[in-house]
Structures are given as C-alpha cells and as structure tokens.
Amino acid sequence: MGEVDIIHINSPYALPFANMLDIPTVVTLHHPRTQDFSSLYLQYPEANFVAISHSQRQGEVSLPNISVIHHGLDPNAYPPSERPDHYVAFLGRLAPEKGPDSAIRAAQLANIPIQLAGSVHWVDNDFYNDQLRTLLLKPNVQWLGEVDHVQKVALLQGAQALLVPIRWEEPFGLVIIEAMLCGTPVIAFRRGSVPELVEEGIT
Asked: Which positions fall inside the Glycosyl transferase family domain (predicted)?
C-alpha cells in the first residue's frame, strides 16, 4: 500500500479513528443536524467538513473548516427521454418525511396515474399500515417496490414529472438531480435543499 494523502470520512463515527493518524481528514455530512453529531464535530476542529447543501450548512453548528459541495452524478448513466408517458413518479423510501401519501393524493387530484418506487423500512411500518396501504390500492396507483438502476432510469424517463413532497429539511435530494438528468421536471415542496436544486419554471 502506498502513501495516503487524505482520509475521506462519510460516517461521523469514524472521526475518532482518523484522528489517530497524522493525515488530513475530510468529513462529508450526509444527515440533518443532531446534537450528538454536532458535539462530536466540535471536538475535531482540525478536520475539513463538507456540507452537501447550503441549507445543511446553515443548520449545522459553526465549524471552523466547512465548505459546500453538492452531490454529482455521471450524466451518461441517466440519458434523457423526449417522449414521456402519461404518469407522474415518486422515488424514495415510503416514509412519512418523504411524503408518498401526499404524492398519491396530488396525482389523484390532478387525475393522472402515479408510479411509486421504493421500499418500506421497518421503522415506517406503522405509517405504511395506518396511512399508506389503502392509498396504494387506489385506481391509477402503481407501487413498483424497490427498483434497480435500470428500472429507476426507465421510471424517471417515462414520467411527466417527479413529485417530491418532502416534510423535512432534507440535506440533499439525490432523486431530484437524477430526474433532471433524465429530462424530467421536478415538482417539490420548498424545504431543505430544494430551492438550491429546483429552479422555478425551468427545472
């Protein structure tokens, strides 16, 4: 193994181990602020932190070395489509903070079919059973379950729009830029990093 120039950390729990080495450390933040993590970061002022959105940075404690770098994707992996089908899409965890129930209701009000892709995590079982299950059985609602990359791209390419009715300050919605690369407009609530990614009337 050759010399190591830099250590890139994607989990806060690795910070104490990186501190044992005399190597510059970059820490990418992937989560909303929690007091425990913020207190941990303050113990390592020599680390270089990267927020994935300005919204995330503004919500975090004041750190001496922090920059903002948005997520990026390979455009070749998301070829655009010029002929969408007649449906809108929802892509993500079927969790209350992601708003799949709002997406279904919006599609029903607009009288347009909706296709949803994503799984239910065990922590969201109550939400699924109490609020989402009956909505998924409504006419013109199709739940695809968890999809692979090829299926995801096909879903986004065929959609007239991606619905992102989030209920939390999401640090960065990767599905937003995935949809944009496929040429699919995004309809989203103005929360978290959404205003940094979605340009009204353009994307």
From this structure: 85-202
pLDDT at 194: 95
Across 138-157, average pLDDT: 97
Provide the CATH number for the domain formed by 75-197 in this structure.
Answer: 3.40.50.2000
Helix axes 174-181, 149-158, angle to 10 degrees: 70
pLDDT (0 to 100) of residue 2: 62
The count of C-alpha atoms lying within 13 angstroms of the C-alpha of 151, restricted to the half-sphere facing its C-beta, is 11
Residue of 164, 169, 163, 162 lying closest to 191 (CA atoms): 169
Q: Give the bridge partners for 91, in sequence order.
A: 117
Q: What are the CB-based long-range contacts (under 8 Å, 24+) for 184-187?
A: 184/81, 184/84, 184/89, 184/156, 184/157, 184/159, 184/160, 185/160, 185/161, 186/161, 186/162, 187/88, 187/161, 187/162, 187/163
State the CB neighbour count (10 A cutoff) for residue 117.
Answer: 21
How far from 111 is each of 59, 87, 148, 187, CA to CA, in Å?
Answer: 38, 10, 28, 16
What residue ranges do the domains of the chain occupy? 7-68, 75-197
Between CA 6 and CA 25 the distance in angstroms is 6
The DSSP letter of residue 27 is: E
